[in-house]
Amino acid sequence: MKFGLFTIVPWHEDWTQERSINEALEQIELADKLGMDEVWIGEHRFSRHGLVSGVWSFLGQVAARTKQIRIGTAVVVLPLHNPIMVAEEAAMVDVMSGGRLNFGIGSGYQRQEFEGIGVDINESRERFAEAVDVIIKAWTEEKLTFHGKYTHVDDLWVLPKPLQKPYPPLFQAVSTTPASIDFAASRQIQVIAGGPTDILGQAPQVIKAWRDKMDEYGHPHEHLDPPMSKAIYVAPTQEEAERDPVGLDDFSSRILRSTGSNGAAIGIPIDAQGNIPPGYEHWANRQQDRDRRDDPGHAGLPPLRGTPEMVIEQLKQTQAAGIDHVFGAFGFPGLPHEKVMRSIELFATQVMPHFQGAKVS
Predict the structure, then answer these.
(1) I need a surface site. Which of 17, 37, 189, 209 has the fewest CB within 10 A?
(2) Bridge-partner residues for 77, per DSSP?
(3) Is there a contact between 114 and 44 (Cβ–Cβ < 8 Å)?
């Protein structure tokens, strides 16, 4: 199995921005030293949900402060960016890190982020699909010529090129929308499951659907293990594992259900009048799905929370469901830094060794 750490650098009310960012970097450094496979960084803006609006500068710091761990984006919201600049920035991180970039992408879902940048969320799916094609061509062709709906260039020398050839591994965040799974398979992009698919108990089915689509397109995939995000918290005693998150484990849902600057809930693409953008029809009940996340008894797969022995058993159930690649946050926004660091260390030293040499399902 493979394991990774995930952060969007949430900004809890009791923390300063500086503390949140610096402690996240220290946690990443520890994961690197302890032999974790990956770190995944998520881009967000305009709320306490996540501070990584300057995703490329943050990734540069991660590249400079780590040695072995692979550096993933989960995700860069492509419709909010010029795809040529994304190709440049991502390639720079790949070069600076010695070829350690995993490039995870998504189409975004927070309407407030689109409106704050000045991008029409109704164009999200089209912009995303075109951006993928632009970036791959910019990386693989000496000079870029592209004429689409949003990008028009001729004979453009996009530099630098990625160190990894033909380009860094691609990953796409998907939910249960068949079209997003089909698109990922059509471009030979691995899916990232978790979040709503975990809550609904559908992550294994989503990954199977992606494998079926890969077969349809004739793309080999047996050697690939798409990752799944899970909340993770390891403590020395079960009492601490259950007590420490009280009052903290609903932070994300609380922020996402709050009202943003546009009068609508932050965590959904739907506007204040209830209009749903094209391609987001499956998001109509997404907040109710998130509320289920805060009730572990309704999670699709067991939450990874407890003593090392307990988490080992929970991971065995996860692996039995066909998941061999897991990453997650190792604490909760507002949890003391030393407890998050302890959770990372307990997982890396007492849980990971039970699975790293084991045969995957």
Answers:
(1) 17
(2) 106
(3) no
**332-351 pLDDT tens trace:** 999 999 999 999 999 999 99
Do the beta carbons of residue 233 and residue 299 sit within 8 Å? no
Count up the domains in the chain and report the number.
Answer: 1
| pTM tops 0.90, yes or no | yes
In total, the chain counts a number of residues equal to 361
Residue 62, preceding peptide bond in cis (omega within 30° of 0): no
Q: Which long-range contacts (CB under 8 A, 24 or more apart) does 155-162 make?
A: 156/84, 158/84, 158/87, 158/88, 159/88, 159/91, 160/88, 160/91, 160/92, 160/95, 161/91, 162/90, 162/91, 162/94, 162/95, 162/99, 162/101
How far, in Å, CA of 108 to CA of 101, rounded? 20
Do the domain assignments include residue 265? yes
Query: Domain of 326?
Result: 2-356
Q: Determine, yes or no, domain membership for 266.
A: yes
Domain holding 238: CATH number? 3.20.20.30
Residue where the block lists tokens 């080999």: 220
Task: Decide if 231 is inside a domain.
Answer: yes
